C-alpha cells in the first residue's frame, strides 16, 4: 500500500519524528505529509499517538528526533504567522468560562491584530463570515457553555476558519454530535479543502472516512499505512492497529 502521490510541495512535512515521554515512546520514526486541498483522516486506538502528533505539529511538544516543516518553514515561524489552526476535543475546554460565542471566534483573529489585539473591521467581518459559514450566526451573543455539544464544535470550527490558517487540525470533531451537525461540518471541511487548505482530522468515525477524507493515516505509535480511505478500511488493514474484526463497525 502506498502513500497517495502529489506533485505539489506539502503544506506539512513530518520527517522521521520520534517523541518519548520518559521510557514511553509515543511516536516512533513517524513521517507523513499533508497536502494542499486534501482532508487526511488520522485513525488509531486510544494511546496510538494521535494527540502527541497534533501537539508536535503545533510546536507544543519537541520531538526527540526528526523535524516538522509547515509551508517550508519551522514550527516557530509557522506559529508566529498563524499558519496552524486547532479544533480541540470538548473535554479540553472550560465551558464555564464567561466568554461568548463571538469572542471565542474572535480569538482566532489574534494573530492578525497586532500586540494590542484591537479588532478592526476586517476582523469583525471575518468572524461574522465564519459564524455564518457554520450556521451559528444567531448564537453569536450566547455564552459558549450554554450551547449543545454540536453547536460548540461548530463554534471552534468557526474560530479556525476566522484564523484563515492554511493548516487545520481537528481532534475528534464528530464525537458527541448529531448526524445533522456531522454532515454540516463535513461539508464545511470539504469546502475548506477545496479552497486549498490542508486538513488533518483525528476520528473514530470509520464509516465516515470515505465521505470526509481524500486519504487517511493508520497510526499505532508509528505510521502503519497512509493511503486512500478505502484501503485503510479493509478489515485486514484495520486489524494491524485494532487487532479485532472491525467489519461490523465499518459497515454499519
Spell out the helices and strands N to C.
EEEHEHEHHHHEHEHEEHHH
The first-level CATH class name of the largest domain:
Alpha Beta
- The end-to-end span amounts to 25 Å
CATH architecture of the largest domain: 3-Layer(aba) Sandwich
Assembly state (oligomeric): single chain
CA-based shape = globular
What fold name goes in the CATH topology slot of the largest domain? Answer: Rossmann fold
Strands, count: 9
What is the topology, as strand order, of the major beta sheet?
Answer: 5-6-7-3-8-9
Write the CATH homologous superfamily of the largest domain: P-loop containing nucleotide triphosphate hydrolases
Give me the number of helical elements. Answer: 11
Strand content: 15-25%
Low-confidence stretches: 1-5, 245-252
> How many structural domains can be distinguished in the coordinates?
2
What composes the largest sheet?
6 strands, mixed
Evaluate the radius of gyration.
18 Å
- Structural class per helix/strand content? alpha/beta
> What is the residue-averaged pLDDT?
89
Amino acid at each position: 500500500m502506498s502513500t497517495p502521490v502529489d506533485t505539489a510541495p506539502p503544506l506539512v512535512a513530518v520527517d522521521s519524528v520520534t517523541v518519548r515521554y520518559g521510557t514511553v515512546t509515543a511516536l516512533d520514526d513517524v513521517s507523513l505529509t499533508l497536502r494542499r486541498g486534501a482532508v487526511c483522516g488520522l485513525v488509531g486506538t486510544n494511546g496510538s499517538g494521535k494527540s502527541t502528533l497534533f501537539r508536535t505539529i503545533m510546536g507544543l511538544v519537541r520531538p526527540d528526533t526528526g523535524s516538522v516543516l509547515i509551508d517550508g518553514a519551522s514550527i516557530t515561524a509557522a506559529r508566529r504567522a498563524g499558519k496552524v489552526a486547532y479544533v480541540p476535543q470538548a473535554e479540553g475546554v472550560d465551558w464555564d468560562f464567561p466568554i461568548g460565542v463571538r469572542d471565542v471566534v474572535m480569538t482566532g483573529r489574534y494573530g492578525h491584530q497586532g500586540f494590542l489585539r484591537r479588532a478592526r473591521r476586517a476582523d469583525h467581518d471575518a468572524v461574522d463570515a465564519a459564524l455564518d459559514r457554520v450556521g451559528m450566526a444567531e448564537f453569536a451573543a450566547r455564552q459558549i457553555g450554554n450551547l449543545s455539544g454540536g453547536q460548540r464544535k461548530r463554534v471552534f470550527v468557526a474560530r479556525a476558519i476566522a484564523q484563515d490558517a492554511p493548516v487545520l487540525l481537528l481532534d475528534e470533531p464528530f464525537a458527541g454530535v448529531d448526524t445533522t451537525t456531522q454532515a454540516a461540518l463535513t461539508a464545511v471541511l470539504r469546502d475548506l479543502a477545496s479552497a486549498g487548505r490542508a486538513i488533518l482530522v483525528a476520528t473514530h468515525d470509520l464509516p465516515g472516512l470515505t465521505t470526509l477524507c481524500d486519504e487517511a493515516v493508520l497510526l499505532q505509535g508509528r505510521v502503519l499505512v497512509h493511503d486512500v480511505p478505502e484501503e485503510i478500511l479493509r478489515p485486514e488493514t484495520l486489524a494491524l492497529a485494532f487487532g479485532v474484526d472491525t467489519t461490523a463497525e465499518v459497515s454499519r
